[in-house]
Amino acid sequence: MTCAEGLSLQRVSAPFCIICLSTLRRHSSLSLCTVFQEDQFLSDSFHTHAHTPQRGHLQHRPIVMALPDTAPLLAGLLLLFHAFGAWAIVVVNMEDKVEVMAGETAQITCMFTTDEGLGGTTIQWFYVPPNKERQRIYNKEPMHEAAEQNTLFTHRISLNVNGTAAVLVIRDVGVKDNLEFICVIKTLTREEAEGRTQLQVFKSPTFPTIEAVETGISVNEDQSKIGSCKVKNGYPKPNITWYRNNMPLRNTQHEVDVSSSTTTESSGLYSVQSELTMKVKKEDKDAEFYCEVVYFVPGATKMTESQRINISVYYLPTEVNIWVESPKGKIKEGDTLELRCDNNGNNPSSITTIKHQNSEYSVDNKTMVRTNVTRLDGGVYECTFTETDNFEEISGSTKVSVNYLESAVITPKDSIAVMEGEELKASCNALSSLQTSTTWFKNEKLVSKGNTLSVKSATLETAGMYKCVVTVPEMEGMKTSGILQVNVKGSPQILGPDVQEVETYETTVNLTCSARGFPVPTIMWTTSDGKNLNALQTETEDGAQSVVTFKITSNVKVFCNASNDFGSKVVEFNIKAILNTTLTTITSMPTISTTTRSTTTISSDTVVHTTPTTTTTTSTNTITDDTVQTPTKSPNIKKESKGFVIAIIIIAIFLLAILGSVLYFLYKKGRICGRSGKQDFSKRKSSKDNIVVEMKSDNTEEAILLGVNGEKQQPNDQ
To answer: Cβ distance 338 to 325 under 8 Å?
Structure first.
C-alpha cells in the first residue's frame, strides 16, 4: 500500500488546515500532520495541534492527531501527495443545542462539505442514551436510506437532505428526547467527520395551586404551617418562591422555613411542592401570602403567580369596647336595644358575657338584643372577655339612658261642666325625662298651647270634646294624649232663625231641629192646632237633634220646643203648600238698526222693555207662548230668597228703562242717526216710524202695531 492510501484532510478554523498522513508498512505505521496556510507552511517544525470547540460555534474534529516530526520528512511527504493527487477533505458544522417545546417538531441541521462530491457520501445519525454508548437511528447511503428499527425514534424521524445540509426531523418531541444527537459524514475513501447537537426539550408547568391552613394560628406558637404551593408537569424542573405582601421569604432560623419536594412523573415531567412554615405575628392577620413559579421555555424564562391567601391569626385582646348598635341617637321606652361588644384581640377560646345590675346575659355573635325596653333597662352595661386557657378577664363598659314619657293626666279628669258666662280652666301634664310641649285641640283644630286650657267666659260654643297632646320635640314619635269633655250649663239654643219659612210642593215634609245646651235639651214638636208630632231625637256633641216627618194638605205652622233645667227655646216653621203652576217670564232686548226696523212681539202675561241700539243689520226677536214647569222646591226654601230675586229683576228693568230713555233722547236730537225714510246707513237717515211694538194676547187674533209716536200701522208695513 502506498502512503496515499491513508491520506485524509479535515478543514479546521479558516484559514488553517491540518494535513494528516498515514503510511502503512509491513511492520509499523506512521501518522504525520502539519499545519499550513493557503498551501504555505507556517513553520519548518511540526506542532502538536488539538482544537477544542467553543459553546455556540460550529464544531470540527481532526481524525488523527499530530506526532513528533522532522522537517525534511514532512517536506518529502507533501511533495509525494501532490504528485499522487490523493487528497480527501470532510468538514461538518452543527449547532451546540436546539431548543423545542414538548409536543412540537424538532429539526437538527448537519452542514457538511467534501472534496469528493455528494454522490458517494454516507450520512448517519446517532443519539447518546444516558450512561450508554451511542446508538444509530438513521442511515443514508448512496443507494439506500432508512430509519433503524426498534428505537425510540423509528416512527418519528425523517431525513431531509438539501445539497450539503442534512436535516434530521423529529416529530412529537417529548421530554425523553432531551438527548445528544450525532451526525457522521463518510466518503468513498473511507474518511469521515462528525458533529454533535444537544436537543433541549421544554414543557410549561400547570398553574400553581396554593392552599392555606384551615385552622387559625396563635402568635404564642413557635412555628406553624402557613400553606403549601404545588406546580405540576413542568420540564425542566420549575422553581417556587414564597412571598408575603410582595416581599420574598427566605429561610431564616426560628422565623421562616421553606421546604420543597420534587416528584418525577412517569412521563418524565417534574412536579414540585413547597411548604411555608413560619412564626406569625399579630400583623400577619391582614397579610397576603402567595407563591411564584419560575420555569423555562426556549430562549427565555417565564414566571407565574398563584392566588393570594390569608390566614387566621389568634392573639389576646388588650382592650374591650361595648356600644349601642341600635337605635342610633337617643333611646325611648318601647324601642329595641341592640348592644355590641368587641375587642382588639382574636381568640376563639374566649367567652363573652354582658352584665347589667347584677344580671348576666348571654351574647350571640358579640351582640345582645333587648326588646320593648323601659326606663328600668337603663344603666351601666359591662362586657367581659374570659380566656379559657388561663381564665384571664378583660372588660369594658358603657352607660345606657332610656327616655320615657308617661301618659297625659288632665285635671279635671274626663269631663268638666261650667255655667254659661263662668271661667273654664283645665290642665294637662305628662311626666317625662326630656322637655315636653303641650297643645289643645277641638274638632282637629288647634285652640290653645301650653299645659293650661283657659276660657274667661264660657258660652255654649265653648262646649265640646277637647284633646290634649303632649310631645317631646327632641324625639320624633314620642307623644301622649288625653281627652276632656267640656259641658256648658245654660238654657238651650236652637240653631237657625226663630221663624223659618218653608215652601214645598210635596205632600210630605221633613223638618230638622238642632239644639245645644247642658243638660241635654228635650225637643218637642207641636202644630198650630195643638197637635203633638212624634219625632226621633239623638244626642250630639253639644246637645241634641230631632227630625220630624208628617203629611200636609194645606199651609200649617209647626213649633220646635227645646227645654232643659235652665230654660227653653221655641222655633216656628211656616210651611206653605204650593200647587204646580205655569210661569212664563221673558225679557227681550230688540236690536235697533239705522236702516231697517226692529220688532218685538210679546205674548200675554209678559213684561217687555225695548231699548233701541245702533247697528247696521236688522233683527227681530219674537217671543211666543211657552209653558215653563217650575221645578219642585225643597220644603226648606225661604221666602226671603224669592224676594231677593224679584228685587234683582226690578232693578234690571229699571236700568234698561233708563238706557232706553237716553238712547231715545239722543235719537230725537239726531245725535245717533237721521230720521228720513229707509236708506243705507252711509247715505240716508232712518225714519222715526221704523221702531214698532207688536202686542197680542192669547185670545186675540188681531195684532196691533204701534209706531214710536203711537200711530197705528198695518202688519204688512213691518
So the answer is: yes
